[in-house]
Amino acid sequence: MTHKEESSQSGRQAAVSLSDEGQVRDVLADSILGLWDVVNNLTRLKPTRRERFRVTLFGSARIAPGTFSYEETKRCAAELTKLGCDIITGGGPGLMQAANEGAATDPDRSHSIGIRVDLPFEQEVNSFVGQAFEHRTFFTRLQQFVLQSDAFIVAPGGIGTALETLMAWQLLQVQHLVGTPLILVGEMWPGLVEWARASMISADPPLASEEDMNIPQCVKNADVAIAIIREYHSRWADEFGSGSNSEAGNYESSAGTEM
């Protein structure tokens, strides 16, 4: 046997019998962890220039068309579309549909994207989604939101919306996300931030920093959120030289109302 053949055999892992359940589990666990290493490595790759500014809107799946929150969310997305922003949602009903519907008012200027998760009781992708992505787990779905978003707007919502909000908040806290606004719209969110401030900062030792509490921007209505996005979009257009597809200079917001 040549030295080359000996080296090849010594580097080769021994076969594992399917009847050996313990070793089979170890092989599967090692393989899954190895796949996560591959995924984590690939997510390091970032485009040198993003073609379009993308805004993710999170919100309740339970709010019906025609309600105040639905119509305000739709209007917000439509106004962002005028700026040349793509709109990303969870792709489902309620306020997700409202945002996709708003983006669909001008399909030539905006892409309407839905990032779904497979649930046994969930409805299909709403009819206003132009491009849909399907995930089997919340973990990969949340990762796609992070990778594709330049800004987050959070409308009223339940536990799922709170999960998405806290994920973005935590990633901004540890600077895995930088320069990405997290805008919480409406009356329900300041209470969450104040609870975090009162409970975490007052602990001994403090469980968070005071500056962490300033990461979410709580605003009263959609027009304030639009104004903030307009400012960030303008900076992005200046940086990437993409202002040509924006009508930011022509934008005029409607009268301020709350979602």
UniProtKB/TrEMBL annotation:
It catalyses: AMP + H2O = D-ribose 5-phosphate + adenine. One of its GO terms (molecular function) is AMP nucleosidase activity. Pfam families: Lysine_decarbox (PF03641). Its EC number is 3.2.2.4. It is an enzyme of class 3 (hydrolase). GO terms for cellular component: cytosol. It comes from the Bacteria. InterPro entries: LOG_fam, LOG_family_nucleotidases. PANTHER family: CYTOKININ RIBOSIDE 5'-MONOPHOSPHATE PHOSPHORIBOHYDROLASE (PTHR43393), LYSINE DECARBOXYLASE-LIKE PROTEIN (PTHR43393:SF3). This is AMP nucleosidase. The lineage of its organism: Bacteria, Pseudomonadati, Planctomycetota, Planctomycetia, Planctomycetales.
